[in-house]
Write a structure and sequence with these properties.
The chain is of the alpha+beta class. The chain has helices at about 5, 10-15, 15-25, 35-50, 80-85, 90-100, 175-185, 250-255, 275-290, 295-305, and strands spanning about 30, 60-65, 70, 105-115, 120, 140-150, 150-160, 175, 190-195, 200, 205-210, 220-225. The strands form three sheets. Strands 1-10-6-12-4-3-2 form a seven-stranded antiparallel β-sheet. It has a three-stranded antiparallel β-sheet with strand order 9-7-11, with no helix packed on it. It has a two-stranded antiparallel sheet with strand order 5-8. It binds 2-oxoglutaric acid (AKG) and fe (ii) ion. The site of 2-oxoglutaric acid (AKG) has 6 residues, from strand 11.
């Protein structure tokens, strides 16, 4: 897949130095319609076809935070398009210019913020060892590349301009809503943007997804987090058939041969599985299909066809 199939012409023409400059000055950089419609649709299709992680002998999506967020972390195991995006020269050139030295992909995901989610203002430069990073040589410098997979008119990403310059004075990562409204309301920058827009920000900056109450709300995004600390990363599952190019830069970025050192986020389980429309429909299909075993052959077939039940071999 050529870069022209992933990125718009305007984004491909963008000078990576402009990204570094804005990241250093404001803590964020954004570009509307950076991704092609074709790429965005491909990501949606790949996530849909991979489905949910319910006794699925492959990777699948999971729910977390009371069912208010859907995560598909192992996109590099199901989407060639995502592999091409994630390892593209365009994004890696931006990283190489920004970090100057080494960097490593720390986590990646497709995710949906669903109605009722209430994300706190926070920074993402948490350290992974449980120890203070000051006075050690663990670098907690990093960026997040977020991209919208559908138009975002509500529940948008918000960032406090310049907060990457002062947040490290605090020894905590979470900020309450009242504190931000009182002290930083004029710094809030909102990113309501069309699908395919990319936002890059410093992990030290204070940010959140704006909370929403609308129960039917869904915001679809993909995210890459890249850090200067090359000693820690979530485990990365990669479908090897996608790897049609490999060089030292990609090897180091994907952490080949390096320890991961941190666990997958989120730590989902049956406890975090909601009974929403999608889950209810999957479970009902399975239950009705199983109960249909007791019916005579011709009826069993009709019931199973009607619900689209797929019997295991
Ligand atoms: O999706 C967003 O708007 C923000 C996501 C975020 O801050 C995170 O996952 O840490
Ligand atoms: Fe965050």
């Amino acid at each position: 897949m050529k870069q022209e199939q992933i990125f718009s012409k305007d984004f491909l023409n963008l000078d990576y130095k402009a990204v570094t400059k804005e990241l250093n000055e404001k803590g964020y950089f954004s570009f509307d319609n950076a991704l092609t419609d074709n790429f965005v649709n491909q990501i949606k299709n790949d996530v849909d076809s991979a489905g949910l992680s319910l006794n699925n002998n492959n990777v699948g999506g999971v729910y977390y935070t009371h069912g208010n967020q859907f995560f598909f972390s192992h996109l590099l195991a199901v989407s060639k398009s995502f592999f091409n995006y994630c390892t593209s020269d365009k994004l890696l050139d931006i990283c190489s210019d920004y970090f100057k030295e080494k960097y490593r992909l720390k986590c990646l995901r497709y995710y949906e913020n669903l109605g009722g989610q209430n994300m706190q203002w926070h920074t993402d430069n948490r350290n992974y060892t449980g120890k203070e990073t000051s006075g050690t040589n663990i670098k907690n410098e990093g960026i997040i590349m977020l991209a919208y997979i559908a138009d975002v008119k509500d529940g948008e990403f918000q960032y406090l301009k310049g907060s990457h310059n002062w947040s490290s004075e605090n020894k905590f990562n979470d900020y309450n809503h009242d504190y931000i409204s009182k002290n930083h309301s004029s710094d809030i920058v909102g990113f309501k943007k069309p699908k395919g827009s990319i936002i890059i920000y410093n992990t030290r900056g204070v940010h959140r997804a704006k909370p929403t109450n609308d129960k039917n709300f869904v915001r679809k995004s993909i995210l890459l987090r890249i850090d200067a600390d090359t000693e820690h990363s979530e485990p990365i599952l990669l479908k090897t058939e996608y790897v049609d190019k490999m060089d030292d830069r990609i090897k180091e970025y994907l952490g080949f041969g390096k320890k991961t050192g941190i666990d997958m986020y989120p730590d989902s389980s049956l406890e975090t599985l909601p009974i929403n429309k999608k889950i209810f429909s999957e479970i009902s299909k399975w239950l009705i299909g199983r109960l249909a075993n007791k019916l005579p052959g011709f009826l069993r077939k009709r019931v199973r066809n009607a619900i689209g039940y797929r019997k295991a071999h």
